[in-house]
Amino acid sequence: MAPKIGSNPEATVEKMVGLHQILPAQYFGLAGAGRFSAEQRLMLALLADALNVYQHGVLSRATRKRLLYLDAERWIMASCDNMHIFSFETVCDALGINSSTLRRNLVAWKHRVAHDPALGPSAHLRLKNTPRERRLSHPRPSARKPRRALGNQARR
Known about the structure:
This protein has helices at residues 9-17, 24-31, 38-57, 63-77, 88-95, 99-115, 132-136, 147-155. It is an all-alpha fold and 156 residues long.
């Protein structure tokens, strides 16, 4: 039996489309666009930078690169006793990465590169930065008129 349209319009609309509606936050959660929170993206950027510095500084003879490498190595190899919000352990845990496995692989890579410098660092690890407006909405048309159109109207 079909509901009466005039009786309660809000209830009718809810019955027709209510179960098929989802919020934007729910859609982006299903689509995978909101996989990391802002804090996790910050932690991912920190980890990516440390890995880049570690890989590019391991064989470097430049003082600045070498000092940055030593700082990254200290951060990566720090003991679990000194845990703070941006420690290597905490960052890896927040991102779902096994920190001990990553640490072990980095040390193994360092030893391979020390014996065969031709292996060198891998490609620079880059994070894709998508501006917020490109992720959430489509570009809107400009309300401005082209200059020619304004110039032609002034002559008339």
